[in-house]
Write a structure and sequence with these properties.
single chain, globular
Length: 458
Amino acid sequence: MNIYNTMTREKEELKVKNNKIKLFVCGPTVYDYSHIGHARTYISFDVIVRYLKHEGYSVFYLQNITDIDDKIIKRAKERGEDPLELSHRFEKEYLNDMKRLNVNNVNFYARATEHMDEIINQVQTLIDKGYAYDTESGVYFDVSAYEDFGKLSNRNLDDLQDNARVQTDSNKRDPKDFALWKKQGEEPYWESPWGNGRPGWHIEDTAITEAYFGPQYDVHGGGLDLIFPHHDAEIAQMEAASGKKPLVQYWMHTGFLNVRGEKMSKSLGNFITIKELLEMFSPEVYRFFVLSTHYRSPIDFSEEILKQAENSLNRIQNTGKNVLEKYGEDDLPAEDKVDVLSMVNEFKNEFFDAMNNDFNTPIALSSLFDFTHKLNKSLNDNAISKDSLKIILDTFEEVEDILGFSVVPVNDSSSDLSDELLTLITDVRQELRAKKEWDLADKIRDELASLDINLEDK
């Protein structure tokens, strides 16, 4: 299996000890509803983990939750809320969004506020080793003391600009130095050897990963926009504190998500939350849309493209539905009239070759399209035996487990209403219509439609 390593700018063979992988992906800062760019990253890594597990790797997937930050405090003041209550409310919304998107392979979500001891210990270690210094406003990392700073982003230290997330502070030795601990007397704050305050943005991640993985681990993921300064800062902090290199064996980054060719932002009016998205399209359609582009490539969002993805997914699922229905028929041939096993093997070879090549989901989906297209003709010709249909269904199930959306769709109505209840409802409506009580009959139909259950009078 080959994966692209952002650090080396090359594809490398994945090599880990005992097939065990420690994976960390930067989680959200929970001060608002999560947006579709977050969803793109977390769907991508969910599929990556699904495939690693399929291939026999044992993966521990850790994600942090930034539940205290300047943005959280500012938003809480605007709304007159307690910052931690606000962040934990939006954390709950985020986790609910992930559940709806079928992102379910994160083993543990680690809140920053629940790891203050680890954060303070790591800051103290950096001070003791001469990589950080204490000032009136806070503790800062001395960028000049770490010679490899910027090696992930490939930036020269002399060319670096001040970290945009930290306002220029006259207490800093150099504008490029970044905050490890911010002193403040206003709640919420935590006690520390340098005074009351809270952590900087970067230090929480390395303190959390060190607590669960130690000073070195296998894979670190996140969005492309986090390479500088966030991931560069993480490398500097942990390698300086531990004296061990490298912090991470493989760096993986997802590409940017744009909306109609422009960067998503509230000022442009093209900011879309996951919550808003799922009012327009199903979670499976968005997963399919995300996987139709390679995780490292930029992706352009528009309703038209989502509708195309919806149509494409429907075509695949219609084939899956046809296979399942055909499997339930009695008049199937005893032997195949076509070479089904060759078709299945050809598809699986193409699918797994694509996934082994840096998780190339667009090529994997293309092979699934070709496979379902070939199947349709054989299904129409009644050319496939029951045993081979079972092999096809098992293959579809394997694909579903990896990609996280259904190839063989389930009957949505059966999960909400039993057949008996549906029969009762239709019988009642027939009686109402017979009595010419049209308004009440229509009201029942409209209420069912709001549950995505459509009744047609014929």
